[in-house]
Amino acid sequence: MKSILSSLSNLNYGGRTAACSVMLQRAADPKEDDGVRDLIQETFLTMWFDTEFNGTTLKKSALASNSKQAPTASSEDHSAEGGDTSSSTVVTPNTATGNTTTASDAVSPIPFPGNGRSSSRRRKSDAVLAAEQRQIRCNVAAKQMVEVVASSGNADFLTDMAKELLFGLGDGIKERKKAERRKKQEAAQSHCGNLVSSLIEQLLGFEEIRKHADKTKEGQQLVAMISTLGVFAQASPLLIQNHLDTLLPYLKADNGVSKEQESAMVIVVSKIVSRVAPTLTTSDVKRVTEGSVCADLVSITYNLGSSTVSAAVEALAKLASHRDAGEGSSEKLMGLVNAFYRYLYKAKGTADDFSAVKANVRNNVHRALSALGSVCRYHEGDKKGASDHVDPTALVVISPSKLSWSNLSDACYAMFRVFIEKKDVGTKCKALRAMCGAFIARPRLMLAVEHTGVLSDVMSDKAHPDLILESLKCWCDILLSEERRIESGEAKEEMDMKESITTSVKISGDQDGDSTLVGGVLTQHSSRLYKLTTNTSPAIRHACVELIGHLLRQGLINPMETVPYLLALQGDVGSPLIRQLALKLLIKEGLKRPDMLRQRVCAGVKQAFVFQRLVYPNSTVTAVIEQDTGDGITETECIFGLIFKELIRSSRVQRQGLFKSLLS
Q1: For a pLDDT cut of 90, what percent of the chain falls above it?
Q2: How far apart are alpha carbons 1 and 425 in whole angstroms?
Q3: Please, what is the Cα angle at 231 between 225 and 232, to 5 degrees?
Q4: Which pLDDT tens digit goes with each residue over 488-527?
Q5: What average pLDDT does range 17-40 have in this prediction?
Q6: Which of 620, 530, 537 lies closest to 571, judged by CA?
Q7: DSSP letter string, 346-360
Q8: Do the Cβ atoms of 53 and 44 come closer than 8 Å?
Q9: CB–CB of 11/50 below 8 Å?
Q10: What share of the chain is helix, strand, coil (3-state, %, to 5)?
Q11: Cα dihedral 586, 591, 594, 598 in deg (nearest 10)
Q12: Which of 13, 291, 500, 532 has the greatest number of CB atoms lying within 10 Å of its CB?
């Protein structure tokens, strides 16, 4: 690991970005070993976020000696190249290549500006040198982050690292004093703040030198920079709060890049606004809402792709829900709601078969459904005005003139129910996704709808495969949203606001009944989920296994009943990703309950036979997987080989129990 850090921390190494990208590809590979994945994450965490990492540590003597040799370039030249003007550029000779490198490209040693004199009066104090060293290291790390995000196209891995740094410092060190832990967290917060400042300077410098010649390349760079900033907004919104004004102009979507890249930037900036909005002060939120931001968000929902609608509506709803926000943002949101609801009200009677209507009408209906579903999900006023007890069969579509925040959720659900009955599968999927937004905001509505049979219908054998797939994705989103609501403390805040919940009820642990409703509803459909693991569509099988994984992790389904179906998926010889996902779930369950896996292995082997007969009817049932290595050599593997290797081989008791189970 030390050799990896040494190579990657040296910016003179030309293959740095490629090496980082390959490491991330290995980490994202579902077939990769968890130990390798953890090592990769630890490498990046140490290289970019560890405040004590000395990969770029400089000695005072080295700084003093190098300052005699290297002339200093002007800060104007450094700024002209789009670099960080917080420190001057130093040109040093490269003895290996005969070329010159700058301080922003060299890691160690890093000379600082000086006139070559050794007088102690001219030397900078240790504190100043350390501060400049930390800032240069942050500049280097920020540049590396953007390069890696640009090459990989994904910043999710960075979000996990930033959260681990800011909020994971207390794990495993309970014996340490709170003061020491607090000190580490403050240092981590300061380090991330310096990284954000470096990223902002890098963004401003890039905008100054943009030539608008190569839109694709410049767009990729902009998306990477803004996505990297979005990482820190997700980890800790306070890090971005002071830089929000720099990012808001990108909501205008006139940045001179492709439409896809505009959408990507708008999504990230909208999510940043959503995260930062609750932390804004009174003066900041008024300045933001009274400006053009709300109008820009409304324009996004009308003009850009459907993927941007949810992010823009969420940002607008968060601003409107701020306690110090004026009426402007709320009026903008209600105007948006009225416009989309009115359009659906007119379109609902157009035709029963929406596949036959004009494409622009169908697309507008899909956009309206997405927007209203997002409003139902994110607007706080809608949650407060809706009733906890409702009969879905009694809800009817109302006239647009009667629409208000108090009846919006009920009216929208009735409208969604109309469009989910249309014969066009795309419209059905959009209506179901919109319902999902209402269910997330009101779990009791989902419980009531369960009794009407709607949830069973969208997963039945008669449903279109695309609708089944969308339903599985919706259930995953609902489960994860409810999990985040509880872990973030939002559930407790909502409980404290309800006057009907007494202290005795709080103590009894029944204060948040909504937290179990979603899981309870989905548990009723566990048998259907098990059956969907044998669906002929690989996409449906994969989504189903993901949903089963969430249910297992949250303790909502019986592992004894689930394990045979996961074992059966080891026979999915045509879909390695599904096999790997099912294997991970089996390993987790096997480590927690070793005896259970041995007891259910026979049922799993039988189910694997049934699985291959159903999913691959034209192929011979087999327990062997043959892979061509490319060298003319064929590797043979048993479908249950990895399970035996990971969970059973190391234990004599488990081995004997397995053999007895197979022979009995």
Answers
A1: 17
A2: 51
A3: 105
A4: 655 455 544 444 445 554 444 444 455 567 777 888 888 9
A5: 71
A6: 620
A7: HHTTT-S-GGGS-HH
A8: no
A9: no
A10: 70, 5, 30
A11: 20
A12: 532
Which token pair is 76? 């104007």
CA-CA-CA-CA torsion for 276, 282, 285, 288, nearest 10 degrees? -130
Whether residue 226 contacts residue 203, with contact meaning beta carbons closer than 8 Å, is answered with yes
State the pLDDT confidence band at 542, using cuts at 50, 70 and 90. Answer: very high
How far apart are alpha carbons 58 and 109 in whole angstroms?
A: 6
Question: Distance (Å, rounded) from C-alpha 72 to C-alpha 442?
Answer: 63
Distance of CA 112 to the CA centre of its chain: 40
Min mean pLDDT across 157-166, 213-222, 542-551, 642-651 is at 157-166
CA neighbor of 461 nearest in space, from 618, 614, 621, 620: 614
Q: Quick one: DSSP state of residue 59?
A: -
Secondary structure of residue 94 in the 3-state scheme:
coil
Alpha helices in 304-353 (DSSP H): 306-320, 327-347
Q: Indicate the DSSP class of residue 304.
A: S
Location of structure tokens 């808001």: 248
Return the number of other C-beta atoms located less than 10 Å from residue 214's C-beta. Answer: 11
Contact 231, 156 (CB under 8 A): no
Determine contact, residues 212/159, Cβ cutoff 8 Å. Answer: no
Looking at residue 630, its pLDDT comes to 66
Task: Count Cβ neighbours within 10 Å for each residue of 12-25 and write b for 16 or more, e otherwise.
Answer: eeeebbeebbebbe
This prediction's pTM: 0.76
SS (H, E, C) 112-135: CCCCCCCCCCCCCCHHHHHHHHHH
- The rounded distance, in Å, linking the Cα atoms of 320 and 376 is 13
Is residue 233 within a helix (H) or strand (E), and if so which, with residue range?
helix 215-235
Query: What is the amino acid identity at position 285?
Result: V
Q: Which of 164, 259, 272, 191 is nearest to 227 (CA)?
A: 272
CA distance 88 to 71: 11
Residues 510-526: b if buried by 16+ CB within 10 A, e if exposed: ebbebeebbbebbeebb
Compute φ and ψ for 460, nearest 5 degrees: -75, 170
